[in-house]
Design goal:
Layout: H1 6-33, H2 39-71, H3 76-95, H4 103-127
Helix pairs in contact: 1-2, 1-4, 2-3, 3-4
């Protein structure tokens, strides 16, 4: 019975790891822009931003991750492209840049979040994505 839970738990840990990584980086950037922020505030900000990242990314991930699993996607770049695209689109929609576009700010937001999304997707790939597919790809 525990062997049947192995893959879903790995997928859950991968998703959680990617969200925590993105939440931590966003919290560090937020703390860097607010001088005088202490470590407990950084922890609380990390938890809050991790929750936000999980809320924003859950629906697209519930569609894309099973497709990657079904297709047996082992390559890093597929996850990186998905993470970069999701992060860039979500950042533009959340920041409100669509209503009041300023080209330089919009490009900066998209590029920065695309890199952050690719890095978070790499965390997911490292934990779960490289083992995608059937029983043949299970680690020994």
């Amino acid at each position: 019975m525990l062997l049947r839970l192995r893959r879903p738990l790995r997928l859950l840990w991968g998703y959680l790891g990617a969200c925590v990584m993105m939440g931590f980086v966003l919290a560090c950037v937020g703390a860097w822009t607010m001088p005088g922020t202490a470590a407990p505030e950084l922890f609380a900000l990390t938890v809050a931003l991790t929750k936000l990242v999980m809320i924003v990314s859950i629906l697209p991930s519930l569609i894309v991750i099973p497709v990657f699993e079904w297709r047996g996607m082992h390559r890093w770049y597929g996850y990186a492209i998905y993470g970069a695209t999701l992060s860039a689109v979500a950042s533009v929609l959340i920041s409100g840049s669509v209503e009041r576009p300023q080209t330089l700010n919009l490009i900066t937001i998209v590029v920065c979040f695309a890199f952050l999304g690719a890095a978070s997707a790499t965390v997911y790939w490292w934990i779960a994505g490289r083992f995608a597919g059937g029983a043949l790809s299970e680690p020994a």
